[in-house]
Amino acid sequence: MVDISALGICVTTLQSLSIGAECKIHFQFEDDKHVRAEGKVIRNEGTQMAIEFTGIESDSLDDLRNFIVSHADDPGTTDVEILSHMDLLPPLHG
Fold it and tell me: Is the pTM higher than 0.70?
């Protein structure tokens, strides 16, 4: 993982996907918390891809939020921004 936000993730990969490709995302943090989401490739630069979240499992929302806030320079402001973005993500079903 190169970067992460409430809206998406930038990753380094061995195999890239085309811009616009839909994908399933599953990653785990150091504390064994994990995130399962769906996304769409919005940028592809060699071995790095930016993926915009299009849906996220409800159980993953708190883990993602806690991770981002705990690594933020200004956790209070970051938490407010995250909450405003997460309302836009539809939950995954199934």
Answer: yes
